[in-house]
Write a structure and sequence with these properties.
Helix content: over 70%
Shape: elongated
Largest sheet: none
Number of strands: 0
Structural class: mainly alpha
Radius of gyration: 19 Å
Strand content: under 5%
Distance between the termini: 53 Å
């Protein structure tokens, strides 16, 4: 049973490494496309407030926009 868990842990670790590599590679490729750098700047600007809110441990729900 422990051997099976070791195999699962190894596969999960490799999948995580692959996902990270794919994310970095696609980010680099996107920056080479026309408008890619501008899109990345906008993404970073949008991500910053979320990262700050999430890092502070705030669990308060934001009000949803009126529809």
């Amino acid at each position: 049973m422990a051997e099976e868990q070791d195999t699962v842990d190894r596969v999960v670790a490799q999948a995580g490494k692959l996902a990270g590599w794919l994310a970095r590679t696609s980010w680099q490729a996107a920056s080479r496309l026309p408008g890619g750098e501008a899109a990345q700047r906008q993404f970073r600007k949008a991500r910053r407030p979320c990262s700050t809110r999430c890092a502070s441990g705030s669990t308060k729900k934001e009000p949803s926009p009126a529809t």
